[in-house]
Give the backbone structure.
Amino acid sequence: MTTQPRALTVVIGLMTATASAYPSLAHGLATLDAFPLAGALQIAPDQPGVDFDALERARVVLVQSWRNDLTPEEITLTPQGGVTIVWRRAGWALELIVDPFALSAFRLDSPSKMVEWTRAGSEATVADAKAALAAMAGDKAKAPQAAAS
């Protein structure tokens, strides 16, 4: 007879049912918090640091545009010190790059077309991220106006 604790099948089932690496806003923000800042001692050629301003702008985008029904699939660093956030849903992909120079680059692949655009400033970036995510989620009333042009 063994006395080793066993993992509950229900818990394992719930863990595998969660498709996103970032099931909650807290997970996404924790990922951003784990990135080393540019200029820190942890920086190495294979592990670039993130620019503090780009990191703060990425946090604003995540907090203000977070959707529990459409969570990011990837949150990574760019070699230039920015942050890339990627959302995917059947036939759709949204890539947002928040760079250290106060610009945000969007790429939205939809079933009908692919569009790319840039925005300066957090307000415009958040508005476009919300609109693109609404379109991806099927919220017809909130289709992205800026992305469509």
Q: What stands out?
A: The helical segments are 9-17, 25-34, 52-65, 122-137, 145-148. The chain has one domain: 20-148. The beta strands are 74-77, 83-89, 92-98, 103-109, 114-120.
